[in-house]
Design a protein that fits this description.
Largest interface: A-B, 79 and 85 residues
CATH topology of the largest domain in chain A: Rossmann fold
Oligomer: heterodimer
Number of domains of chain A: 2
CATH class of chain B: Alpha Beta
CATH architecture of chain B: 3-Layer(aba) Sandwich
Radius of gyration of chain B: 22 Å
CATH architecture of the largest domain in chain A: 3-Layer(aba) Sandwich
Shape of chain A: globular
Number of strands of chain B: 8
Order of helices and strands of chain A: EHEHEHEHHEHEHEEEEHEEHEHEHH
Number of strands of chain A: 14
Strand order of the largest sheet of chain B: 2-1-3-4-8-7
Structural class of chain B: alpha/beta
Strand content of chain B: 5-15%
Strand order of the largest sheet of chain A: 3-2-4-5-7-6-12
Structural class of chain A: alpha/beta
Bound molecules: thiamine diphosphate, magnesium ion
Number of helices of chain B: 14
Order of helices and strands of chain B: HHHEHHEHEHEEEHHEHEHHHH
Distance between the termini of chain B: 51 Å
CATH superfamily of the largest domain in chain A: Thiamin diphosphate (ThDP)-binding fold, Pyr/PP domains
Chain lengths: 366, 411
């Protein structure tokens, strides 16, 4: 008989990035006030900000490619990738057939091999047919392989009601997908953040689900020409007040800002926190704000049951229960499939009136 | 249709066709050109897998191994023959019946067994189990538990390998791809043409993912060979009961512009002779391939299969054509004399040497089991929250922070 096997001791990983992902250079992040100004005259559309983020990163890193339906010759179903085929050529801007599960999985395999894919879903509604690849493979690869292979990939596309598209095309996936460990979810509300967050998403070594909105792609605002990266897990205080905290993310942040302006006329001042990423979630920022206001309304475009709002409120209760002067409230979409009729769809969304009513009742002025 | 039609036996070529194919005749086949030592190693590789699987079954019965566990016995020639036809740095991805792939790719029996024992020195630190064997240094991109899901990954690996060769070779300052197992800070040398081997069971032929992947591979020209390990059954469903055109599967590939081939997977030498030039062509032309590789599993689908769907006689019929016996017979038959299956004897392995090899392998696997027994279990406090994110940040979980744990023993 040969001698008994020797069991080596395994060293602890001490690098900030897991060794399964070498060749990653995270950008250096600065504090919010050190980011380039949000004010300025370079006004571009949300879709152009997204394009700028992808193009800047693609010029820097030849491992990045963009694949999706109609992204190349058609110039993007929503013109996000307009002109990118001309600049980067057909080997890096790639039209895929309508095979979401197939090309999502192709991206994951390519990411394991060492590329940095950006996979565009025409709509996140269509990502449901790719659920196995994006939920079973991308976020679990690092764990299942015991730290041998990560999955540096960005999935991006339109999320939420696009405007009378009916229930199959109006999915908000953040509640469903944020349940899964191993992935990150970014959800910008404005062109400035869209650029800075997408650049960070592309650089991040983990799978990032990047949720845009068809209804915001035409929104215009100043976007700095220079490169900047918005860190994940840091909320932006989009409006400052003292009576109530409004927590939101994605498109509804804009409804919150409208509501806040009207509430100001009634003498109610609110903090509007734009979370920007829901996983990671900047719960410290929420707690800080509630310590000041004692009240919170969470505005979320998903259905209420087991939504991100539910998660936020759970964390609020766990982390700052003693600071609450009123029970936490939430404003979600109505708990029905997304309707087609304009009147019904309008009412269904977490719109301004619902937010105003919730804040009024939180501050006791209902 | 009858409830359980036996799969048709792979057609054995007659000695006449073999002569025509030149196997017995004049011009040598690819395997005839290989040195004896290579064929002896192949035999050893197959025997190692079989012995390993026997010990796996024993450990499973002792409840040392948990979960679903799928045994590879009977199919050994498949991986040994197909791997021999490609390079070590060609990417490989497979399904959950993956112990054979791991061992044939070069994973140590220790790491493989320890994984099934759920131990820290397992190839996935005990986080993957029997169905999820990953080996980065050996370019094995996983065993995958969802039937058919790996077919899209195979397309992606091939896409990336081709991109490496076609795009990154021309991009100034392009980095080495880290997924390929090379140290990433190494200066880049031009990437060559690769071919990815993506294995799947016959049951996966009926998954949407397979069809999407074949379409993508055909459309984009991806150098991936889909090797169907056609053992005639998906669990208890014979291929005829679950799959159209079961007698002519290459037609499915043809629909996606892929020229497929059928191979008898029980005869390692003829498998290699047919697969080697095919794989070379896929690599050279950077085109996908599809192989209906007819094989057979001797054991049940998993460790908990009463096997009501097939007869003992059927299993026996295949065991009579056992791939290990056949290769051993060729190596042990007198040199130049007709041996089994139309192959000429090699006369390079004595009874004695064969027995020594058996003994060695038994000991090797016994030590692997001992290693697995002794390797520590991952402690929840240390390892539960590791390897979830490559870049763990605060706020990712509402319960506690993720962190990095111990380094995988294979890295
Ligand atoms: C999507 C999915 N459905 C069902 C299963 C359960 N399942 C595991 S293996 C198997 C049979 C697959 O047979 P085959 O592809 O021929 O591979 P083999 O077991 O013969 O190697 C089934 C139904 C699964 N793992 N994944
Ligand atoms: Mg099968």
């Amino acid at each position: 008989m040969t001698t008994a096997p020797s069991i080596p001791t395994l060293p602890i990983i001490d690098s900030p990035i897991h060794p399964a992902l070498t060749n990653v250079s995270l950008p250096s992040f600065v504090d919010e006030h050190e980011l380039p100004s949000r004010e300025g005259s370079r006004v571009i559309q949300f879709r152009e900000a997204l394009r700028e983020a992808m193009s800047e990163e693609m010029r820097r890193d030849p491992r990045i490619f963009l694949m999706g339906e109609e992204v190349a010759q058609y110039n993007g179903a929503y013109k996000v990738s307009q002109g990118m085929l001309d600049e980067f050529g057909p080997q890096r801007i790639i039209d895929s057939p309508i095979s979401e599960n197939g090309f999502a999985g192709l991206g994951i395999g390519a990411a394991m091999y060492g590329l940095r894919p950006i996979i565009e879903f025409m709509s996140w509604s269509f990502s449901l047919v790719a659920a196995d690849q994006i939920l079973n493979n991308a976020p679990k690869m690092l764990y299942m392989s015991g730290g041998q292979w990560g999955c540096p990939i960005v999935f991006r596309g339109n999320n939420g009601a696009g405007g009378q598209l009916g229930s199959t095309h109006s999915w908000c996936v953040e509640a469903l997908y944020s349940n899964v460990p191993g992935l990150k979810i970014a959800i910008p509300s404005c062109p400035y953040d869209a650029k800075g967050l997408l650049k960070t998403a592309i650089r991040d070594p983990d799978p990032v689900f990047f949720l845009e909105s068809e209804r915001m792609l035409g929104d215009k605002a100043h976007v700095p020409e220079e490169e900047y990266y918005i860190p994940f897990g840091r909320a932006a205080l989009r409006r400052e007040g003292s009576d109530c905290t409004i927590v939101s993310f994605g498109r509804p942040v804009n409804f919150c800002l409208e509501a806040a302006a009207e509430l100001a006329n009634e003498g109610i001042s609110v903090d509007v926190l734009d979370m920007r990423t829901v996983r990671p979630l900047d719960s410290a920022a929420i707690v800080r704000s509630i310590q000041k206001t004692g009240r919170v309304v969470v505005v979320d475009q998903c259905w209420p049951f087991a939504s991100v709002a539910s998660e936020v409120i759970t964390q609020v209760v766990e982390k700052c229960f003693d600071y609450l002067d009123h029970q936490p409230l939430r404003v979600n979409t109505d708990d029905v499939p997304t309707p087609y009729a304009k009147t019904l769809e309008q009412e269904y969304l977490p719109h301004k009136r619902k937010i105003i009513e919730a804040v009024r009742s939180a501050v006791g002025k209902a | 249709m009858s409830a359980a039609t036996a799969p048709t036996m792979p057609k054995m070529p007659s000695s006449e066709t073999l002569k025509q194919a030149g196997r017995v005749g004049s011009s040598p086949t690819p395997s005839q050109l290989l040195p004896d030592a290579t064929l002896i190693r192949w035999l050893r590789d197959m025997m190692l897998i079989r012995e390993f699987e026997l010990r796996t079954m024993a450990a499973y019965q002792q409840a040392k191994i948990g979960g679903f566990c799928h045994i590879y016995i009977g199919q050994e020639a498949t991986v040994v023959g197909t791997f021999a036809a490609v390079n070590h740095d060609d990417p490989v991805v497979t399904a959950y019946r993956d112990h054979g792939h791991a061992l044939a790719r070069g994973m140590t029996p220790e790491a493989c067994m320890a994984e099934m024992y759920g131990k820290l020195h397992g190839c996935a630190k005990g986080k993957g189990g029997s169905m999820h064997m990953f080996d980065r240094p050996n370019h094995l991109y996983g065993g995958h538990g969802i039937v058919g899901a790996q077919t899209a990954l195979g397309a992606g690996l091939a896409f990336a390998a081709r991109y490496d060769w076609e795009v990154l070779n021309k991009a100034p300052g392009a980095p080495v791809l880290d997924g390929s197992g090379h140290p990433a800070d190494r200066p880049r040398t031009p990437a060559g043409k690769k071919v990815c081997l993506c294995y799947l069971g016959d049951g996966a032929l009926n998954q949407g993912c397979f069809h999407e992947s074949l379409n993508l591979a055909g459309l984009f020209g991806l150098p991936v060979i889909y090797v169907v390990e056609n053992n005639g059954y998906s669990m208890g469903t014979s291929i005829e009961r679950g799959t159209t055109m079961a007698h002519n599967l290459v037609l499915k590939a043809a629909g996606y512009g892929i020229e497929g081939i059928e191979i008898d997977g029980l005869d390692l030498l003829s498998l290699y002779d047919k697969f080697k030039p095919y794989a070379d062509r896929c690599r050279e032309n950077q085109r996908p391939g599809f192989v209906d590789l007819k094989t057979y599993r001797y054991q049940g689908h998993s460790m908990s299969d009463p096997q009501k769907y097939r007869t003992k006689e059927e299993v026996q019929k295949y065991q009579e054509r056992d791939s290990i016996d056949r290769l051993a017979a060729v190596l042990m038959s007198p040199k130049g004399e007709p041996a089994v299956g139309g192959h000429l004897g090699r006369g390079c392995l004595s009874e004695e040497q064969f027995k020594d090899m058996q003994r060695e392998i038994k000991e090797e696997v016994r030590l692997a089991v001992e290693f697995a027994e002794q390797s520590p279990s991952p402690e929840a406090a240390e390892e539960l929250y590791t390897d979830v994110y490559a870049n763990p940040q605060p706020g990712l979980s509402s319960i506690r922070d993720y962190h990095h744990g111990v380094r995988n023993s294979l890295l």
